[in-house]
Amino acid sequence: MTAEDQAHRDGEQPVLELRHVSTHYGLVSVLRDVNVRILRGEMVCLLGGNASGKTTTLKTILGYVKPSDGDVLLDGEIVTGLPTMQLVARGVSMVPENRRLFSNMTVAENLELGGYLRKDKDKLAADREQVLQTFPRVRERLKQKAGTLSGGEQQMVAMGRALMADPKVLLMDEPSMGLAPVLVEQVFEIIRQIRALGKTIFVVEQNANMALSIADRGYVLQTGEIVLSGDAQELLNDPLMRQAYLGEL
Amino acid sequence: MAEGTDLQPAPSPATARLGRLQRLPLRRLIQIVLAILIIGFVVLGTYKTLNLPPDERYDPSTWKAFVISGVAQGGIYALIALGYTLVYGVLRMINFAHGEVFMMGCFASFFFADAYASSGLLNRHPFYALAIIFAIAMLTSCLIAMLLERVAYRPLRNSPRLVPLITAIGASLFLQNTAFGLFGPQTQAYPVPDVLGGDRTWTILGITMQRIQVVVIVTAVVAVIGLTLFISRTRTGRSIRAVAEDREIASLMGIDVDRTIMITFALGGLLAGVAGVQFGLTFGQVSPYIGFTPGIAAFTASVLGGIGSIGGAALGGLLLGLLQAVGPPLLFTGFNIPAPFQLQDVITFSVLVLVLIFRPGGILGSGEAEKV
After folding, report:
1. Are strands A169-173 and A43-47 parallel, antiparallel or unpaired?
2. Beta bridge partners of A203
3. Which of A90, A116, A154 best probes binding to B when mutated, by most B CB atoms within 10 angstroms?
4. Chain A within 8 Å of B249 (Cβ-Cβ)?
5. Which domain holds residue B301?
6. For the ranges A171-185, A214-228, B91-105, which has the lowest average pLDDT?
7. Are B193 and B122 in contact, with CB atoms under 8 Å apart?
8. Spatial contact of A116 and B255, defined as CB atoms under 8 Å apart
């Protein structure tokens, strides 16, 4: 953890925090002493190349993998290794890599599944309306099977589905992965729209330039360790960053 | 030959002329020959049967009866087939013990039916007695299906797919032998209330049917519609579809995957219980072995319709029931075979093999073969 990061909105309780998290797959160490703090309303990105441990970080947060050391905290409460279902119930949602919509179901059903655990019917209806207002294209497609949508529309539905849970923190796993450059622009525009709703977002991305251009702060992961962190603008201009990460692209 | 051409000797002029034929994959060629043979046999058998001398021929009302009994039999198959298809949908696994789940339901209800028959309740209040008998069968099959899932399949969920398949066969033998030991090997008479007796008929839309056939057809239709609505409209149904499509993402929605899979087994069990009573009432008998043949037939029906598809299971059940009822008299009587109706299982297995060869995905399926 850099000094700058520690000073950032010091004393405030993060929505999501990784404290000295290490994760192993068998004997292979994938994450080593990872510290991440995400504050309310912030958009934070986790950058890194292939096999740097980005996806494992998300899996550790969501309880798919148990860390060998360290803790995951949600609103100050330790949630390390809880079953995924309970983490979702406590307010963690994820937009998975490659969208992974239920393609045989309608768009409306996909959205409803996003709010599967919610009991507050009125607020749920309001959130659904907000999603549909943010993405008017999704409203047009409500009755269509999700598998028949274009890539960009599917990304909107995937985001909308995650928003339907009214999450405390929204995780995104490589939203630009495998998309054509035009679509990448479109996806980051969608993320910008979600940010404008005041959501707390944690994005895992390879596309550092894109991610940093819309994020508040960033962390750079290299072979399982955080090597750089700080303000998004500063990271973009940081010569170390260019060397360590952007240079590789 | 498509493969290994390097190892072939240079083609002689005679084989060169056959070039175009050779380019057809051998598998395709066998399929075509097989299809021609089968179509030829079906046409010939049908022709011979329909041109029998008038005194040996079946009259139209007999044909009508064959069709109706086929539809009723199809209803029973459809209900069992739905159990195979539901479980396959969520786990991509064939629950080969499902026939035994059906048998256990039939047996459990038999004890109640037998007691009601000897106390006279069955004939005094047939409606209430039947309601209890159905409920007992459904409850028993449901519990056994859930137990199977919990004990035999859940611990193996992340094993290679062959492992739960073998366990399923083991569970099937376990249940069959349990029934054998506890209830005895003999075939026992399943009591049928007088109102549903074999000679009592109802006439619906000008078609005269045995009452039991009407009951079977109506309950099967209601069950299929009910299940379809449940799967498509309810929150639980939606979670079942979500687990079927993508288990990991379903858990990411907060769906309890274990519970959902358990519910799927329970639904299959409920339907198998209904089928168990229908079977008992239709054939008037029960034994520890009744699970095997209808189980395989229903499995065939679900493959025929397209395994994983609810509509497919219903359609496959109906078609197989019809094929079994109409097939033997239509195809075999013309050949003067002594006992054509004993060949009904031959038809079942022929259908299974033919579907797997020609359209592994089934009628409503994708047409793609899926390894079990």
Report:
1. unpaired
2. A45, A172
3. A116
4. yes
5. 77-358
6. A171-185
7. yes
8. yes
Give the H or E element holding residue B77: helix B60-91
β-bridge pairing B207-210 and B201-204: antiparallel
Q: Are strands A16-25 and A28-38 parallel, antiparallel or unpaired?
A: antiparallel
Please state at what angle helix B257-283 crosses helix B60-91, rounded to 10 degrees.
Answer: 160
> CATH number, domain at B210?
1.10.3470
- B289-300: pLDDT as tens digits: 888 888 988 998
Confirm whether B51 is domain-assigned. Answer: no
In a domain, B104, yes or no: yes
User: CB neighbours (10 Å) of residue A60?
Assistant: 25
Rg (C-alpha) for chain A, rounded Å, is: 18
Find, in chain B, the residue whose alpha carbon is nearest to that of A161.
Answer: B253
Smallest CA–CA distance, residue A89 to chain B, in Å, is 6
> How many C-beta atoms surround the C-beta of residue B146 within 10 A?
18
Cross-chain Cβ contact B241/A85 below 8 Å: no
Within its chain, how far is the Cα of A73 from the centroid? Answer: 16
- Residue A44 has phi, psi (to 5 degrees) of -120, 140
What is d(CA B48, CA B44) in angstroms, rounded to the nearest whole number? 6
Beta strands in chain B (DSSP E): 188-189, 201-204, 207-210, 285-286
Residue among A64, A84, A109 with most chain B CBs within 10 A, to mutate: A84
Of B242, B248, B256, the CB nearest to A113: B242
List the domains of chain A with CATH numbers: 3-91+169-248 (3.40.50.300), 101-166 (no CATH)
Q: What percent of chain B has pLDDT over 90?
A: 32
A107 touches A158 (CB < 8 A): no
Structure tokens at A132: 């549909």
Distance CA A204, CA A44 (A): 9
Number of domains in chain B: 1
Using the 8-state DSSP alphabet, how is residue A145 labeled? B
What distance in Å separates the CA atoms of residue B144 and residue B178, rounded to the nearest whole number? 12
C-alpha dihedral, B140 to B144 to B150 to B152, nearest 10°: 180
* Residues counted in chain B: 372
Model confidence at B48: pLDDT above 50: yes
* Any domain includes B20: no
B261 belongs to a structural domain: yes
Confidence tier at A244 by pLDDT (50, 70, 90)? low
Q: Between helices A151-163 and A181-196, what is the axis angle to 10°?
A: 20
Answer yes or no: do A88 and B246 touch at CB < 8 A. no
pLDDT per position as a tens digit, A56-85: 899 999 988 889 999 999 988 899 988 888
- What is the rounded distance in angstroms from the CA atom of residue B200 to the CA atom of residue B325? 21
Would you say B212 and B196 are in contact if contact means Cβ atoms under 8 Å apart?
yes
The two tokens of residue B138 are 């459904």
Query: What is the Cα–Cα distance from B265 to B25, expressed in whole angstroms?
Result: 41
User: What interface predicted TM-score (ipTM) does this complex get?
Assistant: 0.85
CA angle A79, A80, A81 (to 5 degrees): 115
The H or E element spanning position A171 is: strand A169-173
| CA angle (B39 as vertex; B33, B42 as ends), nearest 5 | 140
From start to end of B223-349, where are the E strands? 285-286
